[in-house]
Amino acid sequence: MGSSFGTVFRVSTFGESHGVGVGAIVDGCPAQLEISLEAIQAQADRRKPGQSDLTTQRMEADTVEILSGVQNGKTLGTPIGLLVRNTDQRPGDYDETLDAPRPSHADYTYLKKYGVRAKSGGGRASARETAARVAAGALAEQYLQQLCGVDIVAWVSQVGAIGSEVDVGTVSRADVDSRAVRCPDHAAADKMEARIREVRDEGDSIGGILTCVCRNVPAGWGEPIFDKAEALLAQAMLSIPACKAFEIGSGFAGSQLRGSQHNDPFTSGDDTNLGTSTNNSGGVQGGITNGMPIVFRAAFKPPATIKCAQETVNYAGQPVTLQVTEGRHDPCVVPRAVPIVESMAALVLADLARQA
Amino acid sequence: MGSSFGTVFRVSTFGESHGVGVGAIVDGCPAQLEISLEAIQAQADRRKPGQSDLTTQRMEADTVEILSGVQNGKTLGTPIGLLVRNTDQRPGDYDETLDAPRPSHADYTYLKKYGVRAKSGGGRASARETAARVAAGALAEQYLQQLCGVDIVAWVSQVGAIGSEVDVGTVSRADVDSRAVRCPDHAAADKMEARIREVRDEGDSIGGILTCVCRNVPAGWGEPIFDKAEALLAQAMLSIPACKAFEIGSGFAGSQLRGSQHNDPFTSGDDTNLGTSTNNSGGVQGGITNGMPIVFRAAFKPPATIKCAQETVNYAGQPVTLQVTEGRHDPCVVPRAVPIVESMAALVLADLARQA
Amino acid sequence: MGSSFGTVFRVSTFGESHGVGVGAIVDGCPAQLEISLEAIQAQADRRKPGQSDLTTQRMEADTVEILSGVQNGKTLGTPIGLLVRNTDQRPGDYDETLDAPRPSHADYTYLKKYGVRAKSGGGRASARETAARVAAGALAEQYLQQLCGVDIVAWVSQVGAIGSEVDVGTVSRADVDSRAVRCPDHAAADKMEARIREVRDEGDSIGGILTCVCRNVPAGWGEPIFDKAEALLAQAMLSIPACKAFEIGSGFAGSQLRGSQHNDPFTSGDDTNLGTSTNNSGGVQGGITNGMPIVFRAAFKPPATIKCAQETVNYAGQPVTLQVTEGRHDPCVVPRAVPIVESMAALVLADLARQA
Amino acid sequence: MGSSFGTVFRVSTFGESHGVGVGAIVDGCPAQLEISLEAIQAQADRRKPGQSDLTTQRMEADTVEILSGVQNGKTLGTPIGLLVRNTDQRPGDYDETLDAPRPSHADYTYLKKYGVRAKSGGGRASARETAARVAAGALAEQYLQQLCGVDIVAWVSQVGAIGSEVDVGTVSRADVDSRAVRCPDHAAADKMEARIREVRDEGDSIGGILTCVCRNVPAGWGEPIFDKAEALLAQAMLSIPACKAFEIGSGFAGSQLRGSQHNDPFTSGDDTNLGTSTNNSGGVQGGITNGMPIVFRAAFKPPATIKCAQETVNYAGQPVTLQVTEGRHDPCVVPRAVPIVESMAALVLADLARQA
Lengths: 356, 356, 356, 356
What we know:
4 copies of one chain form a homotetramer.
Chain A: E1 4-5, E2 10-15, E3 21-27, H1 37-47, E4 64-66, E5 70-71, E6 74-75, E7 80-85, H2 107-114, H3 120-123, H4 130-148, E8 151-159, H5 173-177, H6 186-201, E9 208-215, H7 229-238, E10 243-248, H8 251-254, H9 259-262, E11 266-267, E12 275-276, E13 284-285, E14 288-289, E15 294-300, E16 310-313, E17 319-322, H10 334-355
Antiparallel strand pairs in A: 1-2, 2-3, 3-7, 4-7, 5-6, 8-9, 9-15, 10-15, 11-12, 13-14, 16-17
Helix pairs in contact in A: 1-4, 1-10, 4-10, 7-10
């Protein structure tokens, strides 16, 4: 269970890193929508491994194939099947002879849940599963763009303790992609890239934070109570491997403020909508969008796969020293997480749009 | 839509602050479970208004009534209906003559969604709805306790900028309830209570943070991909009115660490489970519980209702000065949020338990 | 589980015959809809016991109370809570000393599922639960009427082997209610009523068939594949206690025809729609409505509660003679099933309308 | 929407007859189950076209490919992806120049729903979609067999007006497959096969009825209220293209009986279960299985595609004579519907088993 997301615009993913491939089925996408496979592939390319020396050197084509639901470049209203074949099969992912669960990986918890001893949950807990989400999310983005020009941009706003300054009103994907680390603040990006290379060379890893803005989202999207826009965004982000935290608008910092400082006064806005002069709400009030940009942040832990020796125990509870020697791991996941965060945001918004 | 939560153990809430009452239907609760209405009422009492001078002085009995699904103190396996009648009807909540949307309230967004001009979404966005969640969550807790002794404790860990030190391994609800502010660190509680009285006396409000620990949760609960334990907890918390942020385990701070610092080495544990020597994971790895305590934090903004004058605009976009003169509002929501956070955590865990 | 029905317009029922009452929560009903409690009550009255000498003589007021979601006669867009209190509490329904499961009742199967020995599944399998469905369905009807004038009429078309002739194009609820047996063909109704009195006087019971027509349903409602209009109608009907069969359009008889006889040729229709010259399809093609009247039939078995002696075994497997002496049971359920069938049809159509 | 079925054991299908292929994703299948691809292929082969002169002469390999969720012959507990590639692409299915909607096909209703003018809903309403269901259902059968030896057998019990006599207690798939028409009563089969050849040679088609028995289903499966076993079976059957009617146990005929004739007296059964001496209930009481064989019937209309000339109108409402000249259509769908009915029954039972 748990492989589906959304109520009306609903995505289900399948596939493991060691099998035929990973894929997604999107049900509830309107008919007669124009679909660009190129635009989907472009987002998939931003996620794929091997893009720079900051990410894993593993190469994978990550070619997205449309299995169903689209004909002559238009949606049929039927489920859209998307498949990304595995070309680098990694048989080691399903290695039952694995002696010890790797610290802070899902090896141990999948064993307890499914009774299967396997790396990365037999390849399902592998970050590779997110290739399917990115394809589905890129599709959702096309729906949102055609519906009302929704514009979603995520970027790396922090690596380790290195922060950055970015204008949420104007930042574009071109700005973000101008740097390998995907931080559009160049001074910060210099430091971030140096830091990632440093931890990489030490066989270690480092965490980071992404910020995401969704512009041109109309007021009135979101379901009250359990499916508040911010609640679904929180679920969506925490469902990404390695994500440990989420905040919207003022977030944790806002909890230190007084109401007189935090409230967002309304302004006259445009013909049909009011605006607000500040945006501590982050674009949502009471779970429903207010027409202001949705701004949120998601924190990612340092990747659990490191080359440093680790003192741990094996499945029998006996002390062992674990030393991973093979290479090809990401020293920092946040650059490649950018399209994943954007895609999950798009999936949330597409589903809320269908219920608005 | 969006008034239901959970896949197998599933709660649906209904009711507005101005009508007959608020309630919840819980479907998917096993048969033959012993139910204590007293225990449910005890949690409801911890949420109800008027408990101390730190909260609103409005009085509401918040008596929980079981409508169905329980007979002779045992569940039947059928849907359990729970009702909390309104005794303080607040007709003003549904005041169509309201001229201006209150800043950072849901007045404006509900209007955009439903076309209805009303305070607090006609009383549905009112915090009163959480009375239903607390009743349902208290029921979920009884299931979890009888199943495997799950123990959930939340407390106020920060008010404004005032932090606290609490031992997550031993803290109890009795400790928490020993202080009106529900912070078991007495030195911190002194400062927090003083701060809340100060902002209250100034007609202002203040935000805060809750920490919650879930102990005795077995390894193996949680669904991979979209329904990860941490993802559902994030959704659950962000679905609480005024919650703006969530983090599990090391959270935002963990994103500054290196993998060699952040990874939780395994230890021999007990007969059937491994443990970990640190708990940066916060009790979950890859979306599935690992048997360690689940620890998370949720941040709440300062209440939007303040007595200070606010410069804003009315629905027509014309500048107005908004000055709320009536009283009886919470200057800080976190003390009363304690049972709400515990209840939402219980609803998440009960649903995962039913799928384990 | 299984207490909810619908994807977007979604009803959840709760309550047992021996407790506080039965009720329903309707989520997904649009805001700003005008609601007549009188119209809801009128349908509830058509279902309630004691309407004529053909039905049980038990008296129950069946007063519908709106708990939430409606204010000043209009829906808020929030969940609508409906409650029908029990006034005739029937404690015997939950009689653990019951020695033998009653033949063709749910006593035995509920025991196997829930481990609870109780009459009528502790009162949940009681037909009383349908009072909640009728209230929710009457609400759905008001939505459908305001949306596009949908008109749903069911009637008793057969009792035992006694059939009838009714014009599906013109039959009205007034016609149906002109007879206690709810068959608008008076000659047939005479025979049906006589038959029911006859079996009643012999302490026996008899089955029957309902036909239902839904007029003014636009073309284009229904989801392909699993949620075809006819599939959801079939589920809806078979979910009614005692219903054993469903057919739409030509149904079982149509399976004897050739394609050249069965196909419905298109006709020019009106400005925006084509019609068909015959309606063997029953208003649906490929799971989607075609604008012609939806016509279906549902068969109900004879009530299992009879006064005749029955040779059966007790829970221990030992032969016993079961003789029910208390009275007040329906000798034939179909007259009271009329508003239940209409309500379930309305719930299906309202859900499809919300997805159209 | 509507492309998913089931609550816990949940299948989602995708694909059109003219694209890459059709497929299914099965979520909620337990881990560590042994999966035989051969057994899945065997069921797929029973559905595929070209098996005898009674069915379409179109040839399609219908090779089932497992995309995910199975490793080394065992399920991983993750979603199982199944793909059946199209080898006979039929571009004509998506022919926008189609002038007139074919009578009793889904051409017109899909146009009204999706705004797309295409044969067979762009290939989604094509019976080809059922290839995905059969693959998923064959998987569900393996789960049910390993769980408790559930044995599902369907057969053709009527073609046109030609009925048959079959022993539901002993009939096997080998018996069924001994005849091209899949009726194990040889005398009846002779007549059925002759009738099908006769209508085929006249360019016409004919309807028929399938009966299905599910043996070894334990008592206690099924959810009360809306997800009764019989309600889900009804939905499942009516969701199959061309199915117009469903009945369980005594069905329509039972509505003519008296309670004293219809009630199934209990018998001592075996060590853990009671039995019943008759089975008018068809294996379910109050929506829950009682341990007796589940027996139901499903009626299929004659295929809408015939070679006879048909007087109808085009999309503009103008009279046209429609004459289909190309061949390769099934004159009667029921022989090939046998594995589809079995598969849908298996999907229902697997889902109920997971909730039992």
